[in-house]
Amino acid sequence: MRVLSGIQPTGNLHLGNYLGAIRNWVAMQDEMPAADTASAGKDADSRCFFFLADMHSITVHESREQRLANVRDMAAALVACGIDPDRSVLFNQARVPAHAELCWLLCGTARIGWMNRMTQFKDKAGKNRDSASVGLYVYPVLMAADVLLYQATHVPVGEDQKQHLELTRDIAIKFNTDFGVELFTLPDPIIPRQTARIMSLRDGTAKMSKSDPSDMSRINLTDDTDTIVQKVRKAKTDPEPLPGEAAGLAGRPEAQNLVGIYATLANSTPDAVCAQFAGQGFGAFKPALGDLLAETLAPIRTRFLALRDDHAALDALLDKGAQQAAAAAEPTLRAAYDAIGLMR
Ligand code: TYM
Is the pTM above the cut of 0.85? Predict the structure, then answer.
């Protein structure tokens, strides 16, 4: 079992990232057997790889200074959430050139028809596709390289990355078949059942996202208690009371989203949350949700604020992670060049 996942270091870590992916990363890291975790920090065979997808982030315009700050900030945020750089390999993609190299090799395998089906490209490019960057189009091939380079078996992600992982499997199968090798492992996406898609607080049909211009649409992991409580209080809802069972939430996307968030944070189920608040309106439910969110996020925020300014410590852990990742990636990269017949 080899776990790998990534996050773009753009903007703040938000509740969607946390509940859709990072919480699972931490759980998978913590489930690693003790014998392996004991040696994981010391050698490149660590079984969890988590990285900052800074090479992917060049598809979003950002100043140089902001980009540099984002990588450290996201590293601090991941550690604050519970990623332990002594047990998992934590690194930024730009420090491991094997990602870009394998991406190019896989560009020979990926088909234009496959790329044209990628819904995230269509969403992000919008109507004016001709002015989208080539990087945005090739983005899923770089993602395939990220995963295949480490022979990842399990990739914990939110629902929006599922299609990219299906593409990764298609690329792996075609490469293995075309070159007659058994080089790449086929990865399985690990998608949480209840929190696969956390929705915007302003629109229950749009996903919570860093790129939403309204900060009120998301809970950032850096928001303080007052901000969290206020954002939840102002979240869009409907005038109906909560039903006695989760089935009664059908057709009420905002209510469904808030109940799902509550259930996850309380380690409960939407049915149990509905039973608890049955017949009550959002005037009663929202303060309870706001308190639960603030209570869950406060320790993460405190740890983040303590870590984020210690640049030397953050740089040192990213240094170590990059070395471990580069060593782990090397055999697969070398085998990929060799399978194609390229002298390296
Ligand atoms: P990114 O940076 O957009 O998001 C990081 C993780 O958070 C999940 N996520 C959500 N989950 C539930 N509800 C939401 N509203 C929500 N918003 C974001 C995402 O599904 C993701 O798991 N392309 C990736 C980064 C990446 C990657 C990889 C991931 C690059 N290479 C290889 C896995 C494996 C991305 O932009 O994620």
Answer: yes
